[in-house]
Amino acid sequence: MIKGVAITGMGIISSIGNSVEENYISLIENKIGISQIQNISTVHADVIKVGEIKKTNEELIAELQLSENNNFSRTAMIGTLAAKQAVENAGITSINECRTGLISATSVGGMDITEKYYYKYFENPELVKYISCHDGGDVADKIADELGLKGMVTTISTACSSAANSIMLGARLIKSGKLDRVIVGGSDALAKFTINGFKTLMILSDDYNKPFDNTRKGLNLGEAAAYLVLESDEMVQKHNKKVLARVSGYGNANDAFHQTASSENGDGAYLAMKKAFDVSGLKPSEIDYINVHGTATPNNDLSEGRALLRIYDGEKVPDFSSTKPFTGHTLAAAAAIEAVYSVLAIQNNVVYPNLNFEVPMEEFELQPQTSLKNKNIEHVLSNSFGFGGNCSTLIFSKS
Amino acid sequence: MEALKEELKNKIITTLNLEDIAIEDIADNDPLFGDGLGLDSIDALELIVILDKDYGIKLVDPKEGKSIFQSIETMAAYISANRTK
Amino acid sequence: MKKTYINGVGCISTQKTFDTVFLEEAVVNANDPVLAIVSPVYKDYISPAAARRMAKGVKNGIVASALAMKDANVENVDAIITGTGLGCVEDSEKFLKNILDNNEEFLTPTSFIQSTHNTVGAQIALSLQCKGYNFTYVNGTVSFESALLDAKMQIEGNEANSILVGGIDETGDYTMSLFKLAGRIKKENDLPSDILNTNSTGVVYGEGAGFFVLENERKDSTYAEILDVEIKNTLEENEIESEIIAFLKANNLEISNIDAIVFGFDGNIIFDSYYKNLAENVFAKTPQLYYKHLSGEYDTATAFALWMASKIIKTQEIPEIVKVNLVTKPAYNTILLYNQVNGKNHSFTLLSK
Predict the structure, then answer these.
(1) Which of A398, A91, A84 is nearest to A239 (CA)?
(2) In B, which residues are within 8 Å of A202 by CB distance?
(3) C319 to chain A, closest Cα gap in Å
(4) Does C284 touch chain B (CB under 8 A)?
(5) What CATH architecture does domain A248-397 belong to?
(6) Does B41 lie at the interface with A, CB-CB under 8 angstroms?
(7) What is the tens place of the pLDDT at every residue in C220-234?
(8) What is the ipTM of this complex?
(9) What is the spatial distance between Cα C63 and Cα C69, in angstroms, rounded to a whole number?
(10) Which fold would CATH assign to domain B2-82?
């Protein structure tokens, strides 16, 4: 088994907490963040449930101490908060002292602002400043600015696997010696654009999402941001850093089946998991907990379940659960918050419950873990699959 | 019913952007999905919106669409029976 | 460590850059603030069943990638990596307008699905049935260079032998009107645009798709080798020269080894000074090239630049239309490309024969 890349810091803001600590407490106390939507007015308010961060934009502006003429989108604000937490947690005081990068992820970008003011720009000159915060890259640029980071900054946008891909690229940049440390993760705020987009695909549930349940009706959208700091072993030794866990395996593959649906046999998922095992040198049986993508759509859970059975090929599938009943599906940030949860699982030796599960799926014999379980956790596998057949798997290991 | 069928053929061609297909090319009983016209699951969602917007029929479960959208014939029959617009 | 070779290129742009030898049909349009693509015959490359859902960016991406693969004589690749600054603007505009105009009712999924940034990469994977690594980068004007950097790492790390890399951006009417409002695009009375002698802010906007097949072996079709790619988010104007010198030194090269430098001059007087300083000082004796007067400015215009630089190394000739100065060299074997927009997202790309 390879050593893996060191994780030295984490930061997170989601519907179940505004810090790593708060998120963990919610996970072990079954405190979900799903509710009726508050911050966005939409005609669908009564037929959807969402995982909303419990802060308004005004509160975020105040917390970040942004000037009055700022042009931050909500995505950029929650991203900045989480990234700052991670940098502080990693004990970084002089961010450009060595080759440091930021690999971010987003699918919404500044759309949360754009959709508010789309027709209003021409009559309201004071809104024109928001035009440039629309694109995906602006979020990373703003975070880098707030951190004072000058080096390599880029953003990945591959729908729901985005943040996994950021973490993957970050690990590869450290392993290849191109960077000494890198901040990796993603951010997505809720927006009417995505709410309506998913509604047209008819994969939103009007109830609490129930992953891997035979009666599942679809997903609940969520918003969140999370970042981790990865550092080379040289940096860890030099600064005597505490290693929280390691990124030991990763893999990305394409389903090449359909723009939004996953193939029946989960080809892309299977290939991604296989690659992650190859990179880590681990055997599937060595995984203690799988944090599944588990969005609770009819399609994903079936496809992912089949892929898991293929990987385990007759062997028992380890304890697994989806944490999306807690947070909702946070799109480009999903893999990042689930990376934080994976590290916490390793640090605290727990398997989180897959809430809302009642009826096993009829297609196979796979049942998630339904209650909090304490056991030694050496290795965690985390899946994230996005539109465009983009499938990514990460493996985290105890240091 | 004939007028409705022609109307449906027209809507399908325009909404789904089937540039190289004419109304005469779609037979009433031709399968719309799979073989035949070759529409897919995304097209099915588009047709569900047409049912709602133009005929006032709300489908809650996309799977219902499978039998309704088999052909122009089945679509026309369903719409005639259930339209509120 | 394996090397990275550009073995096939494909370019769809606001100039005729397909079915040509090079830029012999290029024409400077200095009068329009937004340039439009010169379209290929899409039907020759994309079936009607597939094309019916695609906005122009996706179609251009598919054609450019097909051209690059044909050029490289490959039928499949191990990985597909793309970069785009604004993503699929047309479909985003369409879906958002529908939401706002119809108060969230009667919306259809196609434009939402097609608006996700990784649509081009996904569609190419679908048509090639390529199940390999597939990433899309979206970070302003380093989107394409991020894809290049990733591809090079894949080849060096033995993770892939052949990779399709591309940069795609499209214009959308409403988005362009917003950019005009925000001052990003040249005002009517600042036209015609004269990029090298600009006295106004704003740029002439463009769109395009530039694709490359990168492989770890030299072939008959090889254009150039990619020696190095670097991305830096923030550099002060007075730090750029030393950054370039350090970049070249890391590759055992000096300024005098550079046979041509490609600058991203875009006619915005505030930030073109970044290039002007270099042009008048450290690169005064180097053949200097520019291209955005042909391609227009957009986040992945640097893919057009890479296409241009690749062709120059292969043909050993620099078209007059892209020359900034009259300096010549006996051979054009090592080319440096430098770009930034609004003083941010700097990229340096080094090519050699």
Answers:
(1) A91
(2) 45, 48, 62
(3) 33
(4) no
(5) 3-Layer(aba) Sandwich (3.40)
(6) yes
(7) 999 999 999 999 999
(8) 0.97
(9) 10
(10) 1.10.1200
